[in-house]
Amino acid sequence: QVQLVESGGGLVQAGGSLRLSCAASGRTFSNYYMGWFRQAPGKEREFVTAITWDGGNTYYADSVKGRFTISRDNAKNTVYLQMNSLKPEDTAVYYCAEKFSTLRGVYYRVGEYDYWGQGTQVTVSS
Hints:
The protein is an all-beta fold. The protein has strands spanning 3-7, 10-13, 18-25, 32-39, 46-51, 58-60, 68-73, 78-83, 92-100, 115-116, 120-125.
């Protein structure tokens, strides 16, 4: 059974940091391209960042570039999102997602991903 479980969300002050984790199970993790998305209240789910199957390429939304870092550990079947210099506008539910692909290039559309986690809340206070 395919499963993605996010953790690490919480409440943090502006300027602070959080590290999200997404643990995958149920198939060969290294065959999957991984992404992080977020959804704020009343808004559509939006792309945040993605990483290729081997960690060789990463992609970021302009709004988080230079502040967020995606990484993965295929031995642990886990993808991470390090978030620094957090802003109130980063407040959202953060979702990890996976796409069965070993190709390069950026996949930023929700519909391009095969599986999703349940999400973890990140709240940044001003």
